[in-house]
Amino acid sequence: MSSSRLALYEQQPGSSSRFDIDNLIDERYRALQDAKQARNLWPTWWKGHLRVGKVYAVLNDHEKAINSFERALALAPTNNEIQKALYESRQILGRQLRLEHLESKLSPRSIPEQLNELQRNLGLDPEEVRMTYRLLEEIDPSIADVIKGHQYEHGDIDVKQDYEQAAKYFAKAANQGNAEGMYNLARLTDRGLGVKKDHNLAQGLLEQAAAQPPQHPLLEELPNNGVALAEHALGLRHAEGVVVHKNLLRAAYWYQRAVNHGCSEAANNLAIMYEDGIAVDKNLDKAEQLYEMSARKGNSPAMLSLAYLLLDKNELQMAKIWYDRACEAGSIPAQASRDVFEKKLREKQQSIDQCSSDELKDINVRKNVLDSLKAKKTMYKQVDQSHVYDYDVLNQYANRGSMTAKQMCDALEHFYRAMSILIQTETLTESQENEFVHELSQCYRIEHIVAQIPGVEMCQKKDDTVDRVLHRCSRESNDAVSQLDEDVRICYAVLHMDSKEFIAQFLGPCKQKYPKSIFFFELSTSVNALLGQYETALYDANAGLTIDSNYYELLYCKAAALRLINKDIDETISAYRAFLAVAPEDHRKVPESYYAMASCHFIHLKQNDTTDIIKKIYQEGEETEKKQLPYFLPYDSSSKTFLKHAFNGKSLLNAEPAPIVDRKLRLRDSHRIEVISKHREWESHRNNLDHSVISGAHKPRVKQQTPKSLIGLKSITLREMNPTRDHIYSGYVLSATIIDAAHAWTPSIHLVIEDENLDCEQMCIYGFPEEQGEYLTSKVYTIGSKMNIINPYLRIGASDMKPFIRIDDFSSILVQSESERVINMCRCCGEPNAPYACSKCKQARYCSKECQTMDWQLYKHKLICKN
């Protein structure tokens, strides 16, 4: 009766998918009570959980809605109605957590409003922008349909907003192979704007867009709009579990692809994963680099995250600069929390002022160690391609007596058989699907880490096959016990392990249905530990051990759960000893077990002789590392890191400090690589007779002028200049060195400069006498030359929206004397007196083979290398 009354509520006019604060809100809360009563009366009925979730969704509480939908899906894992509701709430919650509703860039604006903003910020005439669009339309007719779609989506002069018409034009462009058309049609389809909402169709369109070439097929110097955005959207869908299985590894893969193609949103999301150690190894340097890449492109959430990351690193000046930039960019969270941030900034500064350099160094070392222990746990980490497991190598170790290698070989044999079925034909028969599922489940039972399926398409085929088999088994009977049903449930659980709450629910009925299948208990123990539910994990481990008391995977899980519960050190150590007594000596968790026991003793330090015990156990752990397979070395253990710091802190602190500015570390900076490689691509296009390069420039928004007096000028560096703001820094002087020179001078001289922090940027010089162009490029503005730039103008490019230093007043450049020039500067790292010359062009010099290789591969020296 309760569920029927809820159905009546849903049919009422007020029961929409929107949350309207009016008198119908009481009806919705009454509906929630009815739904909960129906669920409590029959907790194993999936519809009860579904209806509770639907009411929470109407109330805009999507976190609780997702929890109910996942409970329903655990009871009916192939039900389309549940899946659609779950996808919808996951997507909405994702937008809410990303605070998209607070992002000014995402707020609805008409085309004229967008063009007026470009004019205010960059000085671009709206009519000139429209003229550029018309030129592009002549080159690629599908662009005309995309532009028309945008006009109908946002509204334009004499064009009334109409989502249905927008979708038609985007579809027309998509049918011509236009990636931007595909992406925009997917976006509208995902939200049901102008077309019927269909998450699956949107998924297909995004995959089509992401499969297009990253550069425009007709205009190679321009990006293929829509490709990077589609890749980022696919990353979000894998991170949230919309249409596809929630898989953080694949999310990281798609984010990285989008980052490679210039997507700032993807860079921010990938930075979060590196900062927290989600599905990738925790790497704060990588996170900082990605945040900066995103922030430089105007992403205000990245600016805010970068500010806090720099604050933690005690780089207070740049932390404040980026926080201020986030506020200027319109970040509401930054503006609302400015007082809190500034208080933390003052406290940090006071703490630093009160510490000696050695004390500060000690604090930083301890913080780095603690940071390394805070990586968020996921089932799997990103796969390093060098660690794809080689059967022949493992077999050699197995023949020498390695039990772990033998086990991995056995798992690989099942995996290879599963893969051979998957790749042998486009469409599998039911019999082939059943065999695939059996072999894959056997691999997972023996050793899941070897199951590394190459390629996104093959992974999707694997997921779809498992889903189809599960659907068949569920259709026949949810209560029927069979080997196939057990196998497919194992595969399904492993593939969904990133959806931790859902799988914890899913495994409950699995354990009841197959009480002798110990692997379900192992999975349940693992997922509950990942959720922080250590008592439940311990219960699952003990339940599984009643099936096989010597099952060492569960013995290890039990010990880990006891350590995390942190109640009885003796029981915990006994559990680790029980694991060590039966596990192979080269099992990958053996060293970690010793380090964990040592950590337990350290945390519960009670007597003087405990230190000797800790050191002894620690050394035993190091000895067992020598027996590890090469795939697990160097050995990664947070417990070891903690202990190493605890006992070797002094030696760590006495190590030689890294220089304040490390030239070699900056060589792999993504912005540096982009600036230099794009500069060389530009020079190559100009010198290639087979390509025509349109030479021209937009007028600057403001005019640079040289001051009448140089007295009182302040120094400024590139990082202190806002890369998102078109601005002349009057009263400042920028000191720089040329690290990549120009070979042409029309319409401007293009250089790459580097400042004292080793940050680099492109510089374009206008306003020089044209007849002096050849002399200036060959004699004055050469590699290694140093200069001072007065009142530097950071210009935002009109076409690519990227920052560069623009010189309009030729006299604002003061070239330093020849004695200051860096002689024979290494073309890669900038070191002086580089002894080696490029054997082909004889012009580029290098300090080492490493630098020459890096310059050729990363910075594309081959584009400008000539005989």
Automatic annotation (TrEMBL):
The keyword Acyltransferase does not apply. GO terms for molecular function: zinc ion binding. TPR repeats lie at residues 46-79. Pfam families: Sel1, TPR_2, zf-MYND. The keyword Ribosomal protein does not apply. Residues 826-865 form the MYND-type domain. Keywords: Metal-binding, Repeat, TPR repeat, Zinc, Zinc-finger. Gene3D superfamilies: 6.10.140.2220, Tetratricopeptide repeat domain (1.25.40.10). Belongs to the sel-1 family. This is MYND-type domain-containing protein.
